[in-house]
Amino acid sequence: MTVPAGKTAALRPAGTEGPGDTSRRVAFGPAVLLLAALLVVSMTAGMAIGSVRVPAGQVWGIVGHALGLEWSEVTWSRARETIVLDVRAPRVVLGAVTGAGLALIGTALQALVRNPLAEPYLLGVSSGASLGAVAVIVFGVQVFGHLSLSAAAFAGALLTLFLVYTTARSGGRITSGRLVLSGVAYALVLTAVMNLLLLTSDRGNEARAVLAWTMGGLGGVRWGTLWLPAGAMLLGLGVLLLQARPLNLLMAGEEAATTMGLDVARFRARLFVLLSLLTGVLVAAAGPIGFVGLMTPHVVRLFVGGDHRRVLPAAALGGAVFLLWADIAARTVAAPAELPVGVLTALTGGPFFLWLMRRDARRTTGGGPA
């Protein structure tokens, strides 16, 4: 059975494009090369900009020497080398990994639930992961050793995602309003429980540090802790790229995907576990950072189309670039004080979310494009 093109378009949720949409698409190769170049520039800026400015040439010289590439004469001090390699470089790598991972999660969630507003922060998944991580910190649980924090965050994210999806699904379909309202409701409850744990904890100093962490931030990271979020992000990217075709099928609707041989329920369950694992690891590493997974997929689809074989790698690069510049702004806007990066992503993502809801409402009511 073949689903007519018009029928497929009608089934597609507002605000998304199918793999066949070619309007406004640019060549995939140049788009990825441009994003990769922007990522290199962003990482260089992240290591150069701060309370102590380091010229870009010195940044590359320091990194090159650390990698054993003697391409330039040493013209920098030991202090600058320490700042670049031990303070800023791990932070920049975590920012790129977290931004890429959040963009991948948002892209996959929007396809899985066929909703352009789907994103781990808005659906309460980040709140569930945060509650799991805070519970481990407050109660001092170390069942899995140094992996206990990530394991608890994963469990909280998975349970929350299941509850939100189950609550929002009624009559075999999910509407944008019901999904967002369910996510917001669970996020409020989970955040209240988390705050209660922090307020009643007898670890005052630790509680204050965790409270700051709940606003999202990339500071204080060390090289030894980066392997887990980096590995999780690369695993997520690889698995999602292998599942690009099923994600494309889901965008045409559950009925069409089932007709094409996809076991929708089993596929969703597997990817929910994967996305919850990735969310848990990223939240444990950087705290809950919102709206990266909402904005990046929509912006990327404007340029590379709706085929997830193109969207996923482009979104990963775009998310990394966006979060790196948000972190640079967080370090410089109120210098010498440092703002939580989650605050800045919310300040940009909030208006984007409102615009997206307005556009979705106008299309649903037949008001035409916004």
Task: Summarize the structure in words.
By secondary structure, the protein is mainly α. Helices cover 70% and strands 0% of the residues. It has 15 helices and no strands. The protein has helices spanning 5-11, 28-48, 56-66, 78-112, 125-139, 148-168, 176-200, 204-213, 227-242, 244-251, 254-259, 264-286, 292-304, 308-332, 341-364. The longest helix is centred in the N-terminal third of the chain and has 35 residues, at 78-112. The chain is globular. It starts with a helix and ends in a 6-residue tail after the last helix. The model is unreliable at 1-23 (pLDDT under 50).
In short:
This protein is mostly helical. It has helices at residues 5-11, 28-48, 56-66, 78-112, 125-139, 148-168, 176-200, 204-213, 227-242, 244-251, 254-259, 264-286, 292-304, 308-332, 341-364. It starts with a helix and ends in a 6-residue tail after the last helix.
